[in-house]
Amino acid sequence: MDKTRSARFSSADCALSIKFMINKIKELRAKYNLTQEELAKRAGVRRETIVFLEQGKYNPSLKLAHDVAIALQSTIEELFLFDEKKL
To answer: Is residue 4 one of the residues assigned to a domain?
Structure first.
């Protein structure tokens, strides 16, 4: 594996990938009548993390995606979708 390959991707490249990911966090949070603060507590993160996830400004780690999905009684696959038309 080429160890220099990861250095070729800038933060702008990462930001572009976030735009193609759609999440249903806000929708499911509303379904269960949870505030951002309540969801954050259930997922073990700060409220700001939930805000950034809902706004698509943050690309979650696999662990964070799993924790949020569990807190929303969902799965990662149901919670995070990729807009394949843009990929």
So the answer is: no
Residue 23 lies in a domain: yes
**Which pLDDT tens digit goes with each residue over 37-87?**
999 999 999 999 999 999 988 889 999 999 999 999 999 999 998 776 654
In this structure, what token pair is assigned to residue 37? Answer: 């603060």
Taking residues 7-29, report their average pLDDT: 65
What is the sign of the dihedral through the CA atoms of 71, 41, 29 and 61?
Answer: negative
Q: Which residues pair with 21 in a beta bridge?
A: 82
Q: Tell me if 36 sits within 8 A of 50, measured CB to CB.
A: yes
Structural domain boundaries, residue 50: 11-86
Is 1 inside any structural domain? no
